[in-house]
Amino acid sequence: MSNLLEKLLVERDWLLADGATGTNLFNMGLTAGDAPELWNDTAPEKIRKLYSGAVDSGSDIFLTNTFGGNASRMKLHDAQSRVFELNKKGAEIGREIADASGRQVVVAGSVGPTGDIMAPMGSLTFDSAVEMFHEQAEGLKAGGADVAWVETISAPEEFQAAARAFELAELPWAGTMSFDTAGRTMMGMTSRDMVAMVEKLPNAPLAFGANCGVGASDLLRTVLGFAASTPQLPVIAKGNAGIPKYVDGHIHYDGTPELMGQYAVLARNCGAKIIGGCCGTMPEHLVAMRAALENTPKSAAPSLDEITAVLGGFSSASDGLGDNEPAPTRRNRRKRA
Ligand SMILES: [Zn+2]
Fold it and tell me: Residue 336 carries which DSSP code?
């Protein structure tokens, strides 16, 4: 077993992932419309600070600043020829911070959506998505990433394309989707659909789960949905810090460190093994999350009412799995051969 994430998943009962990338970088002066990946080259000290913020707060895993580092997204900044280089740099800085930590810390090469809509609704073919993700994965691997980590995905075909790309790059991986539309992804996937999908992928991830979406409550409802399908693979929970609110024209997350500590404990009780934050989650939140996980024993999964009592209400009445939804089909329930 040579992969660090695989090893830690065996050795540990839970792992703390990191928090927000965007929120931290905006605080360092990134403006909307900038490509943060360019900072891997032009402002590496800011990226070191981003990664150190997570590692010094106790994260066992952190994501690289390469979320939008695919050819389609980089083309918007006329940097599509720099995909390999910018991903390699992002991972190299990560390797440097992880190796200097004195602990075992996983460098996870972030891979976000292409930003294009998959065919037949859109123009992105499966093969071109694989090609883009593969190019990015090769850069991450060359820079020393332990794993690739695809996140915030809505379309099952795009998730599958990433899995294929990581297979081509021979890079172990993990992946999360974003359930931001009444309990489903924007493309209609439920938590149950995702478990069925990952368990039959030819190149299985080391862990899978949910990130971002709406608020932390919704994310935990999705994690309960994963657990109800009794997945074979470890589950990842990366929820936003509280509930997003519009303040002066931008999104603000109101979750306090204390609240995120409670979220982390609830996430573990819901069945998550890798627990982190997403938008709005800062180093001080991570410190509180680590302390809460260390100081609170695992207990039974919470009810939906217990989740909302702590973290606030859900954004929708249903998680997409209710009685008014189509029943799971045999096809969906089939286990991997
Ligand atoms: Zn987020």
Answer: P
